[in-house]
Amino acid sequence: MSAQASGFTSTLPAGLAGIVCASLGLWLGFPSDLPSLPLLCLLYPAGLALLSRHARSWRSALLWGWAAGIPGHFAALYWLALPLSQVGGLPLLAAVPLALLVCCGLSIQCAVFTL
């Protein structure tokens, strides 16, 4: 299936806007070392709803939702690599991909939400 047939390229501006909204909502809306603004967490479901609305099929909705969850979860869980490295004894270069793998798994909930 080509990218045009799946609706991936035709929804690119709305998709990028949804990814940015969801990522900012996860990053700035939840508690962290950075100053957090709790009302910004509402950008997270708003961004996923935007992705769901502009997706051409359920497959593209899943893909866009999953793609939106990865940077958002990684921004919110940036600290996860440090305990894997310091407590788990892994080198930092091995801990970062494992933290990214956790974020990819957590992004499945974003993909399901966009359906």
How would you explain this protein's 3D organization?
By secondary structure, the chain is an all-alpha fold. The chain has one domain (12-113). Helix content is 67%, strand content 0%. Helix 1 packs antiparallel against helix 2, helix 1 packs parallel to helix 3 (58-76) and helix 2 (43-54) runs antiparallel to helix 3 (58-76). The longest helix has 22 residues, at 92-113. It is globular, with a radius of gyration of 15 Å.
Strand and helix layout:
Layout: H1 12-29, H2 43-54, H3 58-76, H4 81-86, H5 92-113
Summary keywords:
single chain; 115 residues; mainly alpha; 0% strand; globular
Low-confidence stretches: none
How would you sum up the major sheet? none
Number of domains: 1
Structural class: mainly alpha
Order of helices and strands: HHHHH
Short description:
This protein has 115 residues and is mainly α. The chain has five helices and no strands.
